[in-house]
Automatic annotation (TrEMBL):
<dbReference type="Pfam" id="PF25005">
    <property type="entry name" value="PSF2_N"/>
</dbReference>
<dbReference type="InterPro" id="IPR007257">
    <property type="entry name" value="GINS_Psf2"/>
</dbReference>
<dbReference type="GO" id="GO:0000811">
    <property type="term" value="C:GINS complex"/>
</dbReference>
<dbReference type="Pfam" id="PF05916">
    <property type="entry name" value="Sld5"/>
</dbReference>
<dbReference type="GO" id="GO:0007059">
    <property type="term" value="P:chromosome segregation"/>
</dbReference>
<comment type="subunit">
    <text>Component of the GINS complex.</text>
</comment>
<dbReference type="GO" id="GO:0000727">
    <property type="term" value="P:double-strand break repair via break-induced replication"/>
</dbReference>
<feature type="domain" description="DNA replication complex GINS protein PSF2 N-terminal">
    <location>
        <begin position="12"/>
        <end position="71"/>
    </location>
</feature>
<keyword id="KW-0235">DNA replication</keyword>
<dbReference type="InterPro" id="IPR021151">
    <property type="entry name" value="GINS_A"/>
</dbReference>
<dbReference type="InterPro" id="IPR036224">
    <property type="entry name" value="GINS_bundle-like_dom_sf"/>
</dbReference>
<keyword id="KW-0159">Chromosome partition</keyword>
<dbReference type="GO" id="GO:0006260">
    <property type="term" value="P:DNA replication"/>
</dbReference>
<dbReference type="InterPro" id="IPR056784">
    <property type="entry name" value="PSF2_N"/>
</dbReference>
<protein>
    <recommendedName>
        <fullName>DNA replication complex GINS protein PSF2</fullName>
    </recommendedName>
</protein>
<comment type="similarity">
    <text>Belongs to the GINS2/PSF2 family.</text>
</comment>
<feature type="domain" description="GINS subunit">
    <location>
        <begin position="75"/>
        <end position="175"/>
    </location>
</feature>
Amino acid sequence: MSLPPSLRTSVTPTELELIATQQLIEIIPLIAMEKTAFISGAYGPLRPPHRAKIPIWMAVNLKLKKKCHILPPYWLNVEFLQARLNEETSEAGFSRLPFRFAEVAKVLLDVAPDDIQDTEKIRSILKDLREARQAKSREGLANLDRGEFSLPNFCSLEINEVRPFFVRSMAILQQLYREPSDAV
């Protein structure tokens, strides 16, 4: 649902995906292209079959035109994600994942499923990982107080999800704990 900026309390997931596409990723180009300058920087030259690092947005554009193969990041595989899921379900804290893993994974799985092995298994693990992390964040928010609130290894999407609740909760807690002399 699209809301006017005055009513939105956080960034939308689509906007987070757009931000995440600024990250660099490796590709194997299928076309030759000279170094090209963009506002965000100059990328290239692209020479098949040599790998090149370009922003995800550019890789997506080339992939949709069938002009490259995208090499998935080191963490976008069944073994790595399964290990993080096991860690997530067996330990108290959040497992260490790339800050924008959810957004990057969604973009790459949507655009380049043929370049990634076991996409359905990865999607399933990512869903389970997300549910486990959401359960931990709900548990953490249930124990919210005026003291320090620390959630190490939280990713950008998770921060964005709890931001509206957290901001409102902290405002209410501030009012509740306000000293009587402050109320006057």
